[in-house]
Amino acid sequence: TVSIALLTQDLRLHDNPVLRAACHEADEVVPLFVLDPDIEAAGFAAPNRLAFLADCLTDLDGSLRRIGGGLVLRRGRSATETARLADELCAGSVHVAAGVSAFAGRRERELRRHLGDRLHVHDESLTVVPPGELTPAGKDHYAVFTPYFRVWRQAGERPPHRAPVALRTPAGIASEPVPRVKPDSPGLPEGGESAGRRLWRAWNVDRYEELHDDLAADATSRLSPYLHFGCLSATELARLAERQGGPGAEAFVRQLAWRDFHHQVLAARPQSAWTDYRAKRDRWWNDELEAEAWRQGRTGFPIVDAGMRQLAHEGWMHNRARLVTASFLAKTLYQDWRIGARHFLALLVDGDIANNQLNWQWVAGTGTDTRPNRILNPLAQADRLDPDGAYVRRWVPELADLPGRTVHRPWKLARTPGGYPQPIIDPTDISTRLRTGRGLD
Ligand code: FAD
User: Fold this and answer.
1) Which atom in ligand 1 lies closest to the alpha carbon of residue 227?
2) Are residues 103 and 132 in the same domain?
3) Ligand 1: centre distance to CA 249 (Å)
4) Are residues 292 and 426 in the same domain?
5) What is the pLDDT of residues 295-328, one digit of tens each?
6) Which part of the chain is the Photolyase/cryptochrome alpha/beta domain (predicted)?
């Protein structure tokens, strides 16, 4: 018997329910990945993510080969290609992880149409707690994080699935080569399960609680791209951290719960990827010149520009910098969050339809924030998150010679350092711009 494990955002051997079920069920397993043109057509195939994906596929193929199998790579519409291969091989079953996006929903419906009850969908692959498992009375999802987190913590431990030790893939199945894509960002991390596991082992969760908001310390895990592509399982990471214990591990697990939270929102409301989760009454003030200055990291507000330049250089940005830059676009410049979300998706190596869109909505006040009018004052944030100015000096070389926190307000100097732009909006006017009556954090 043959079983197909259609891999999507679960590019790993460890704790992979899809691979595990396929191996359990059949003598021969085809681990399949389909490069789907619909993802490219939706603008979701950014070069940074494609380059990282290529590493993931190469690494997974290597790991599968070491246990006797191999990855089969196809190009085409995911459901059609999978069904075609299932028919060719007379596969008795096809296993796939449940997704949360509209795209994943369509793929699953098409697979079901082609395969009927040969299709098995596993909902415990993507998140620690499957979306939809926890719901408040009479509702289909949690709209507020705190009560969600309360029940999430009590949802019970799930033992991770062990990696298969042997696997046989039928010989002679045609497979495409892994596509090589040139990334947009020079500082991209190496993709794949092996690199992700190395990174986890090398990272120190103990200091996470103390340092996770310190921009210059750069002390967060940087595991987000590995979680996005499923090179690492969130369940396994939560368990490893919980075993270690302590405030750092606790704070880290809480972030994994945020990830689950956004996934369960998107699973229940797939349209909230691009439409306001909560309708916004007033209109945006879109201004293309301001948006472009923001994209280029040339707003004249150093903390904002540092974040945007880190994104361009690394395809990644510190969480606090994401909050500051997003708030600057959506709340200070008052531009539509979709403009920012689209730019982030074009560059982020961890760019994720659930985490990106719903975090953007949270910041813009159209999402799940219980204080939708909250505004982050970029100058107060700079003083708090980068008190010595080291993060700004790292990413904005024009300001590298300015001492301490003078770096956050270069317009106050007699002469602005060469080449650095003047602020695109009047910094003394910022609280008016932030609109009276709204709280500043
Ligand atoms: P750590 O602090 O080490 O956290 C561990 C893991 O928890 C992360 O890898 C991530 O999977 C998860 N996590 C942490 N914070 C959040 C959060 N607020 N929401 C959901 N999950 C979280 N994260 C993405 O993975 N992809 C995105 O496209 C994305 N876009 C964002 C856009 C905006 C405007 C904002 C404010 C946040 C966004 N985030 C996104 C969430 C967060 O910024 C990143 O997950 C985090 O910075 C990744 O770095 P890390 O792995 O070092 O995180």
Assistant:
1) 11
2) no
3) 16
4) yes
5) 999 999 999 999 999 999 999 999 999 999 999 9
6) 1-131
Same domain, 298 and 254: no
Within this chain, do residues 239 and 300 fall inside the same structural domain, yes or no? no
Under 8 Å between Cβ of 405 and 387? yes
Please indicate, yes or no, whether residues 117 and 237 belong to a single structural domain of this protein: no
Asked whether 262 lines ligand 1 (CB < 6 A), one says yes
Provide the ipTM: 0.99
Can you tell me the distance from the alpha carbon of 438 to that of 308, in angstroms, rounded to the nearest whole number? 26
* Residue whose CA is at the smallest distance from ligand 1 atom 8: 224
CA of 400 to the centre of ligand 1 (A): 28
Residues 380 and 428 in one domain: yes
In a shared domain, residues 102 and 147: no
Q: Confirm or reject: Cβ of 234 under 6 Å from ligand 1.
A: no
DSSP states of 326-377 as a string? HHIIIIIS---HHHHHHHHHHH-TT--HHHHHHHHHHHHTSSS-S-TT-B--
* Strand duo 119-122 + 93-97: pairing: parallel
Ligand 1 pocket residue status of 310, Cβ below 6 Å: no
Residue type, 28: E
Number of domains in the chain: 3
Q: Is the CB of 224 under 6 A from ligand 1?
A: yes
Co-location of 353 and 236 in the same domain: no
pLDDT digits (tens, 9 = 90+) for 81-120: 999 999 999 999 999 999 999 999 999 999 999 999 999 9
Domain of 361 in residue numbering reads as: 288-433
Backbone angles phi and psi of 395, in degrees to 5: -105, -15
Pocket test for ligand 1, best of 232, 240, 319, 357 (most atoms within 8 A of CB): 319
Q: How far is the CA of 204 from the centre of ligand 1 (A)?
A: 17
